[in-house]
Amino acid sequence: MSASFFQLLRTKKELIPLFGVVSSAAVGAVAFSVYSLFSKSDVM
Length: 44
Description:
Layout: H1 2-11, H2 16-39
């Protein structure tokens, strides 16, 4: 699956910024979730 994914990115170069923004948003959401889980104890 990853080979076809990179082949798709090579043929459609206009999708590269979209995947960059979506992946950075996903990383930020995961990082904020981990930060909230370990630093803010008012949830539990």
